[in-house]
Fold phosphoenolpyruvate--glycerone phosphotransferase.
Amino acid sequence: MKKLINHPEDVVKEMVEGFIAAYPKRLKQVPDTSVIVRADAPVQGKVGIVSGGGSGHEPAHGGFVGPGMLDGAVAGEVFTSPTPDQVYEAIKAVDGGRGVLLVIKNYTGDVMNFEMAAELAEADGIQVAKVVVNDDVAVENSTYTVGKRGIAGTIFVHKIAGAMAETGASLEEVTAVANKAIENLCSMGMALSPSTVPAAGKPGFTIGENEMEIGTGIHGEPGIERTEIKSADEVTDTLLSKVLNHLQLAPNSKVALMINGLGATPLMELYIVNRRVAKILHEKEIEVHETFIGEYMTSIEMAGCSITILRLDDQLTELLDAKADTVAFKK
Amino acid sequence: MKKLINHPEDVVKEMVEGFIAAYPKRLKQVPDTSVIVRADAPVQGKVGIVSGGGSGHEPAHGGFVGPGMLDGAVAGEVFTSPTPDQVYEAIKAVDGGRGVLLVIKNYTGDVMNFEMAAELAEADGIQVAKVVVNDDVAVENSTYTVGKRGIAGTIFVHKIAGAMAETGASLEEVTAVANKAIENLCSMGMALSPSTVPAAGKPGFTIGENEMEIGTGIHGEPGIERTEIKSADEVTDTLLSKVLNHLQLAPNSKVALMINGLGATPLMELYIVNRRVAKILHEKEIEVHETFIGEYMTSIEMAGCSITILRLDDQLTELLDAKADTVAFKK
C-alpha cells in the first residue's frame, strides 16, 4: 500500500490534527472529536451549517468550513459515516441561536446518523433542519444508498446555503434555497483506477489495465458500464449527455459547471475534459456563468473525474457569486 | 496508459484550450501559441512577470497568472522546455513599458530558451531581467540541470515578485526581491510512484511495489535514496531536516511553509505530513506565518510530495500577504 501515512488506524485523527495545524487562524477542532468548525464559531444570529461524512473525500468537507460556506464539518473514519455523537457535537458547536442546517450526502449511514444527531440536538432545544444531496444521476440505488448518491455537487449546496445564511436568513429560508440548489443539480463520474482505504490495505475494486468504468461512485460503488479506455472526448460526451438529459436545459439557460478530480487525475486531464464540455455547452447555447476545475470531492487516490452542472436563476447566481473564504473555495 | 486524453500529441494544445475556456474573464491566450496571459495584459506602467516551463506541472504555471502574481505563463510540451519564440511571444504580450522579469526554474533547457527569448525581446527594445529558481536541496546537478533544480518554491517567487510589481516598483527592484526570496528558499521532495509522459506512454522510471525514493525531481530525476516505504513521520523528518539544515533557521525565525502534492497524493496524506512538520517547527521555536497545502507544482500523476520553506523578513511577509487573484492562488 503506497501511502504517506503512519498507522492505518490513525489516519483520520492525524489528518485532522495536521489540517488544523495548517490553518489555526481559520479553524478550530472541537476537543476530542474529529469535528472542525470556524475559528469564530458559533456565529451569533446566523443559521449554522454542518456537513460531513466519511473521510477520504478531502478537501470535502473541512476545506469548505469558513465564512460564506460551512460552519462545521464532521470527519468520519475513511468511507464510513460519522457517528451521531460526533455530528451532535458539531451541531452544538455551531449553533448561534438561529438553528442549524445539516447538508447530508445521500448515503444510508450518513442520513441515519445525521438524523439521530438532529434528534439529540432538538432535545437540547436547538432547531435543526436537513437537506439530502443526491446529484449523482448514474444509478438509482447503490451500495450504501437508496435513491441517487450524493457526490461533488454537494459543494455547490454548501456554497448556496452558506451564502444565504450569511445574509441573516432564517433556517426555513436557508433550507429552502439549499433544496432549490439540489433540485437544479446533476452530476456524473467515472473512474480509471480504484482507491485503497488505509485500514483495508488493498483497492476497493479492481479494474483492468485497459479498462475504465462509467458512473462509478466516490466510494468505488459500481457504475453503469465497464469498458475499454475511451478518449477524453468520448467519455465527456457520455457523462455530459446523461447530465444534460436529466436537467433538460433550455437554450439560454445559465449554469455553473464543475469538473471535479477524484484524487489522482492531473489538472491537465480535467482541462482537456473541460475543453469538450465548454464546446458542447456553447453549441447548445447554454451560458456557463462560472467554471470550477479541481479536486473538490475526491475518492482518496482514485483516478477519474465527475462533471456537475447547477442550473442557475438570479437568486442562485447571486448566492454563488457571494464572498466565501475557506481553505478550498475562495470568492 | 490510463489517462483522460485524446491524442498524446495534442495534450498541451487541448489543455490550454480547456483552461482558457474555463476562465475567459481572467485569462487569454496569445493566438497560435501556448502562452497564457492576464485578460488585461499588458498592464501599462507595471513590470510584467513571465514564468513557464514544460507542461505536466499544473497548476504551474498558468494557474498563477493574474493580478498579484504572473502576467504570463508559457507552456512547453510535457516535461519539455518551451521554445524561445513562445517565451518571446509571452514577453511581448505582457510588456507594459516598465520591462519584464522572467522567473525560470533551473533546468538547462529552460534557462537557455528563456535567455534566447530575452535577447530577442531586448533587440525590440524591451528591458528584460531574469531570476533562476534553484530551491531543491536534494542534489547538486541532475538530469537536465547544472546546480540545484527548481521545484515548488517557485510559486513563492511568483507571489513575492508579483506583489512587488503591483506596487509599481522598477524592474531592478522586482528582480532584487525575487532574488531575495530565492536566497531564503529551500525545498525537497520524494516519490512513491512515477509519472507517465503521454507521448512516451510508459512511466519515466520504475519503483518497486514496496519502495519509495527520497529527493526525486519533478520530472522523475533521480533522488538520493531508494528505500522501503517508511512512515509519513520518518519521511517528513528526512525531508525537513535537510531543508532546515540548509536554511539554518534561528529560533524565532518566521517562515512560510508549503506542503506540495505531486499529482496523485491525497490531501489526507499531505495533512498527515504537515502534522509532523508543524510539530517539529514548533519545537524549534520557528514561527509558521502561513501554511499552504495542496497541489502547486505537480509531476503529472506522480504520487509523492515536497516540503518548501521560505524564510521571511518584514518585506517578504508583506509581499506574501498582499492580494493575489489567480486560478490556483488567491489571497
